[in-house]
Amino acid sequence: MSYDYQNIRKDFPILDQQVNNRPWVYFDNAATAQRPLAVVEKIQEFSLRTNSNIHRGTHFHAIKTTEAFENSRDIVRNFLHAKEREEVIFTHGTTESINLVARSFSEAFLREGDEIIVTEMEHHANIVPWQMACERHRAILKVIPFADNGELQTDLLETLISDRTRIIAVAQVSNTLGTVNPVKEIIRIAHRHNVPVLVDGAQSVPHITVDVQDLDCDFFVFSGHKVYGPTGIGVLYGKRRWLDAMPPFLGGGEMIDRVTFEKTTYNELPHKFEAGTPHYVGAIGLGAAIQYLQNIGIKEIGAYEHSLLTFATDRLKELGNLRIFGESPSKTGVICFQLDQIHPFDLGTLLDQLGIAVRTGRLCADPVMDHYGVTAMTRASFACYNTTEEIDLFIKALLRIRTMF
Ligand code: PLP
Description:
- The protein starts with a helix and ends with a helix.
- The protein has 405 residues and is of the alpha/beta class.
- The longest helix is centred in the last third of the chain and has 22 residues, at 298-319.
- The protein has two domains: 5-35 and 298-404, Alpha-Beta Complex (Aspartate Aminotransferase, domain 1), CATH 3.90.1150.10; 40-295, Type I PLP-dependent aspartate aminotransferase-like (Major domain) (Aspartate Aminotransferase, domain 2), CATH 3.40.640.
- The chain is 40% helix and 17% strand.
- It is built from 14 helices and 17 strands.
- It has a seven-stranded mixed beta sheet with strand order 4-10-9-8-7-5-6, sandwiched between helices. The chain has a four-stranded antiparallel beta sheet with strand order 13-14-17-16, with helices on one face.
- The chain is globular and about 70 Å long.
- Bound molecules: pyridoxal-5'-phosphate (PLP).
- Pyridoxal-5'-phosphate binds at residues 93-95, 123, 125-126, 171, 175, 200, 202-203, 223, 364.
């Protein structure tokens, strides 16, 4: 069966509107994806009929809500192919998940003079928490560079790992370059040195099927709002052996076992890392989003988006005097570019006037900007509902803007 994007678009009523008197083209999907009706309706129905706090109540709707929340954990477990449901922790997003690991893992395992490795293409969310951990524990941050075509220089990893390396944190897909990094290979090398690996899956889970057992990653993190789900909900997957050995991140709520003023003991996984009232509405919405994604098929979505990437890249290159940042053969539907000498902020503003939403700026990736010696980029990123007709509008808009300069 061919990919039915027209029917898929019907699931996203938000796309069917005009912006500045033009059909709205949404190419800012790497920042956040739109939500299908299945997610909106699930949240609405839940909020209108069921809502009660989880885990604590003995009444009808408290039990129903707890079941729905825990059912979402099972959906995520199945989505990531985690071995145990207790290895799936709900957080508020990728950023919080990484901060949790950076804080808690470091407290347990990082000592003065130890080393952490990240890559040059990371989002700030996968740099700053590690830098903070290094400052707290007087450890050293090392960086795997990438080549100008956007490919990670994985061959340098062996030279960077030492007997002081405690953890490696790497994005499966770069939010600027679109590069799909060889994380399985990185994990294999790291494990040969007994070093665990955290994989930032914020930009990969909407486009690539993930199997944490096959990857053998130690931690995997992603955000709900980038996989067609709600904001404010995210996931931390961690192997039980690590999560058991790490101290809690935040205190209070369901993370306790018993509290006295002398000493508090902590709950079992996954609750140990879910302090306070979790964003259970978000988790339920995330479950619906994942089911929506699985119904279409992530492989099918990935292949379709790749066809959009190829089409858009070819059309952009035809414009001439256009620089694309990141041209790895292994890429998702993300294109960062510079057109002529037009500043990305001007370009983004003018594109918006023509109804087209793109991202401009430093894209939470200052080291990537520094690598190419630029202060900003323009980013177009595609999702399951985008079309070649929209890319045509985008190219037409770029041609029009060019004539204004
Ligand atoms: N990591 C990557 C690769 C990202 O692209 C993003 C967001 O753009 C993040 C982390 C942070 O995600 P969030 O803001 O949802 O926590």
